[in-house]
Design a protein that fits this description.
Elements (H helix, E strand, L loop, with lengths): L11 H12 L3 E12 L7 E14 L2 E14 L11 H17 L24 E6 L3 E6 L6 E3 L8 H24 L23 H16 L5 H12 L1 H8 L9 E3 L8 E4 L11 E4 L6 E3 L1 H11 L3 H25 L10 H10 L1 H15 L10 H10 L1 H17 L15
Antiparallel strand pairs: 1-2, 2-3, 3-5, 4-5, 6-8, 7-10, 8-9
Helix pairs in contact: 2-3, 3-8, 4-5, 7-9, 7-10, 10-12
Length: 425
């Protein structure tokens, strides 16, 4: 836990203004403390603070004392995106509509509780009290920990039950964004394209790390018996990575459009595990970090999640089942939201979207998975040692062996040689 204090502009007065915007009434701050829970660095673009607030507010005609836990996210602007990210638009415009849309399905329990704050209704994301863009992007958010949502162990990956919870919530999110884009057709123009729509910008904060990680992965795979052809194909695609990203992320090629989360891996997923005071599902997922959200294919989020966040044995045995579960929930939610039945995507259409974006799964496998599996001590090592330890991780190597053979079999890598006499599993 860092001892870093927030910058001068993030203080009790700032929190008071944010709370007054949210509650639309006067708030008197009695006590406000900040604790840094995440630092901006090589793999994180924000400083994040948990803020404990004691305050006085008028409710039902009388002054009451209350307390609230708040998350303050101070996001550093990337030089490759001087106009900022899509997170501001998502929190100010898109996500409030998503919540309203889903609240129409009453038994999904997405309604905001009006009285009993102990009743923890279903959350998809944190409420945003206030956000703004200046030198940085600053977000003042509710703390989902107060609603029993907690971080998952992203190093181990999710079991079947937790993976199903994510698929259920992702399907709801995608369905609601389909309704949103249909209701507000000009809304898509307010969101920037995917940060990878024109390839990985050479001046972006993570460009060097992405390509360095891919080169490290290739060196590892070259050492494995029977993987020479796969490694050769990986080298070819390293040189043509940006061209392939541009190709698969063309919005026009989507058979139907959703707003993709953009980085749906376990580090951006919180899980509610307790049933105490809860309405709805016992296991429930919520999403954080919408910086990379964009209008595009459902296949983006599905490929990132499956290739970074699901336990290998679960993926081997239940990949098809998880995709089918996502599809069934997507269809069910669209029907509840009165989407025209003839416009509901077919199972074959969704699977085509997943297949077309398998290369995104390849990128996520090589770059995001090793970061997700990184042990705490590795984060303090120098670059060379850090990269070595990232790719020496047992789960990373097991996932590589399984997923790379699968990609080769699907033709994603267009292997130049098939050294093994046995078909990939």
């Amino acid at each position: 836990m860092s001892t870093k204090v927030p910058p001068a502009y993030i203080n009790a007065n700032y929190i008071q203004q944010a709370m007054e915007c949210y509650f639309e009434k006067c708030v008197i701050i009695l006590e406000c403390t900040f604790k840094c829970i995440a630092l901006e660095g090589e793999y994180c673009s924000s400083d994040i603070y948990r803020t404990q607030v004691k305050f006085e507010i008028n409710r039902h005609g009388r002054r009451v004392y209350d307390n609230m836990s708040i998350i303050v996210k101070d996001a550093v602007m990337d030089v490759s995106a001087p106009m900022g990210t899509n997170e501001l638009v998502m929190f100010k415009h898109v996500l409030p509509h998503v919540r309203r849309i889903l609240s129409e399905v009453t038994f999904y329990h997405y309604q905001v509780p009006e009285t009993d704050h102990r009743t923890l209704l279903t959350k998809m994301f944190a409420d945003c009290l206030f956000c703004e863009r200046g030198k940085n992007e600053v977000f003042v958010l509710e703390d989902l920990k107060a609603s029993n949502y907690k971080k998952v162990d992203h190093r181990k990956g999710l079991d079947l039950e937790l993976s199903r919870a994510v698929m259920r919530k992702l399907a709801d999110f995608h369905a609601a964004t389909m309704i949103y884009l249909n209701t507000y057709p000009s809304a898509a123009a307010t969101l920037f394209p995917s940060t990878f729509a024109n390839g990985i910008s050479p001046i972006s904060r993570h460009a060097a790390k992405v390509f360095e990680g891919m080169r490290t992965a290739i060196k590892l795979v070259e050492q494995w018996t029977g993987f020479g052809g796969i490694a050769a194909s990986m080298r070819i695609w390293l040189e043509n990575c940006n061209e392939r990203l541009t190709q698969v992320l063309q919005t026009e090629r989507c058979r139907f459009q959703v707003i993709a989360h953009g980085e749906l891996w376990a580090k951006n997923i919180l899980m509610r595990m307790s049933q105490k005071y809860c309405v709805g599902e016992l296991r429930d997922a919520a999403f954080v970090d919408f910086q990379l959200s964009f209008v595009g294919s459902c296949g983006y989020d599905l490929n990132v999640f499956l290739n970074t966040s699901v336990q290998l044995e679960v993926l081997k045995a239940h990949r098809y089942e998880l995709l089918r579960y996502y599809y069934d929930r997507l269809t069910e939610t669209l029907k509840y939201l009165n989407w025209e039945e003839e416009k509901i995507p077919s199972w074959e259409t969704v699977m085509s979207e997943v297949y077309d974006l398998e290369f995104i799964g390849y990128y996520a496998l090589l770059y995001l998975l090793p970061i997700s599996c990184m042990e705490r001590e590795a984060s303090t090592q120098d670059n060379e040692k850090q990269h070595t330890s990232l790719y020496e991780n047992e789960r990373v190597q097991e996932m590589f062996r399984y997923a790379l053979e699968r990609f080769a079999k699907l033709g994603v890598l267009e292997c130049v040689i098939q050294e093994s006499g046995n078909p990939p599993s």
